[in-house]
Amino acid sequence: MQYYDTGFWQIVFVAVLIVFLLFNIIRARRGKSLFIRRIAGLSAIDEAIGRSTEMGRPVLMVPGLSGLGPVGIQAVNIFAYIARTAAKFGTPIRICFADAALYSVAQEIIRDVYQSEGFADRYDPTAVRFISDRQFAFAAGVAGMILREKIAAAFLLGDWFAESLILAESANSVGAIQVAGSTVTTQTPFLIAACDYVLIGDEFYAASAYLSREPVLVGSLVGQDWSKLLIAAIIVVLMVQASIEKALVPQTTQETQEGPGLIWTSKPIPARLKKRSDLLENRLFNPRPPAALSPREKRKLNAWEKDSDQ
Amino acid sequence: MRELAQLAPPTTVWTAHNGSTLLWVEIVAALILGILLAMGLSRLPIRLRKPIVAVVTFAGGLYFVLQYIWPQAQDYSKDEIPRGTVEGVSFWLQGTLPTVTNFAQVLGALLLGLGISSLLRIHISQLVKKHKDWLFSLTLIVSMLAMLVFGYWDWLSKLGPGAEQAVAANPHIFPNFARDFLFDGLFINLDAVMYSMIAFFIFSAAYRSFRLRSIEATILLGTALLVMLTLMGGVLVGWDRVVDAVGGGGGGHAGFLENFRLGAIKDWVQDNLQSPSIRAMEFGLAIGGLAMSLRLWLGIEKGVSN
User: Fold this and answer.
1) Which of A68, B87, B175, B195 has its CA 20 to 30 A from that of B34?
2) Are A137 and A41 in contact (CB under 8 A)?
3) Would you call A214 and B304 a contact, using CB atoms and an 8 Å cutoff?
4) Considering CB atoms only, which of A74, A104, A169 is closest to B292?
5) Looking at the domain covering A37-212, what would its CATH class be?
6) A80 and B303: CB-CB below 8 Å?
7) Residue B67: inside a domain, yes or no?
8) Full residue range of the structural domain in which residue B228 is found
9) How far apart are CA B303 and CA A208, in angstroms?
10) How far apart are CA A107 and CA A99, in angstroms?
11) Alpha-carbon radius of gyration of chain A
């Protein structure tokens, strides 16, 4: 039986990141004060809700095409904060979904927010809506709502694709203040061009920690920063190592697959400059089977073959 | 014959045949069980609901974590008997994956029903109350019903031996024609119309953001202009001629000035500025997603609504 060999570095790397995250969550829970820088897009949330309240027009929240996953849940978390503030001021809200599962979860969360704030009577069950799971039918439905109801603020946070600009420009045409953020990097430039405030990259995931200052979330955010530092350090170290290896260490062997079992063997060749595939960084993340089997592996292989013959 | 019949796998609760009484009994029993379970869960106090949700989430998450880290056989077959614990777990993971994904699909379908009911509730109420823009609601309901009726009718007409070939031979059979007219003739084209409108929105967004109002906007304008110019063949050729003339190459190699060809500048911008920036964002997003998933999996996610 053959098994996929994807190497163990990826799993080790993910395990290290998980340790960073959990360590910082525990640190924050123990009361360690951790700093979060100011994020303009999130500071603008209250300003946008205030504007909607003054104008008496709805606040629109859309998580794009996000499904019931980390991105969708994070978007609904931010919307819950916005709904809480809107509930206090009696500002009408509209939340539109393209995913039925996320819609069902969000409906519960938003209702809970209104109840926990003591404004259950202000909750409008039609405020949280499922529009369509087809991309452009969804875009048409939300754009129509933006134009008909002349929303005062739009929060476009989640997984965005080609429909992002349709909604952002529709909201701009009715003079709405817009806060946007996408986990799809190809859409970020469009949102920057069309919206007033944009959460770039992982600022989207920092939002709930920034808004709530909840220790678990703040600790997790610091863990994310440690992980990014680790990645940056690995990139720098491997870049220096690869440059040195390429310039100073000549390649004198070549690995080829030979024999009936296509075993990898290393053969001497005339010294030459190393190619990209010869460098340590490449070999690290593209593992090959060992040149020769270890005694333990040989024993296992023999037992395996014997078992198969029987 | 009797020997051959014995070779057929025995019918179990998991392998009931399509249309059999056993399958119908199972469907009805599962439905009743599901309704009872949902009713029971909804009556539980919130403090008891949370641990149940946490345990189910953890078990589901663990299953997919194991799918990722456990050694997977390349040529897995249901007929093989596993040797050892590692292979046993691997076979179990690979064998149960279709069932688990089926569960997810069934849940998704149920929730889609909830979404549609919300949509209908809102629009039927607007229609009944003759709310402002009730005509839009009427259009939506009529379109939805028409697509449902003709889609289902078309599907029914293709059931049975040779029915699909008969429809393929004569696509003007009414239900097939009506379904194609609604879906391919109207829906797909309306989808394309919405997509085409993006071109105008790009233009208006670019006009607003590329104005010389700040240093950032000016850099954006300059970079965008350079990249756009490389898409214009005439400009590209003219620019290259200028580089050749200044470099004295006459169509050959212009030395250091090669770096100032429009294509070379664009490549430099894309390879050294754009790609690293996007990769940096993607690293951040991936780690953010990992952290969020981990919090959800371990049941320690504290949303801002808590």
Assistant:
1) A68
2) no
3) yes
4) A74
5) alpha beta
6) yes
7) no
8) 210-298
9) 7
10) 12
11) 27
